[in-house]
What we know:
Elements: E1 7-8, E2 13-21, E3 25-32, E4 37-44, H1 52-66, E5 76-84, E6 87-95
Antiparallel strand pairs: 1-2, 2-3, 3-4, 4-6, 5-6
Amino acid sequence: MFTPGDKLEFGHYTVLRELGSGGMGVVYHCRDEFLQREIAIKMLLPELMEEDDTVEVFHREARLAAQLEHPNIVTVHNIGTEACQGKIHHYIAMEFLPGAVCAAK
């Protein structure tokens, strides 16, 4: 969906690289240009964006994770949408944890 150097949220986030993908989304390593920190952004897969139930599950996941504080759970910073190629992409911006990159397919 996105490639290194792409800007999201009108320049708020810069895509650095894709970290991996799974059954529900693609995760990108990004730079928060406003707060000057690295973050991870999980984008809902394009084929799932048209299903209202799936979008709600995606947002519910973000809201529930945002209520939790635990060393083994990433911190959620933001949820939002990004317009690209005529589609609205739903995303969760969260804490970036450096380490091994795994791509679950």
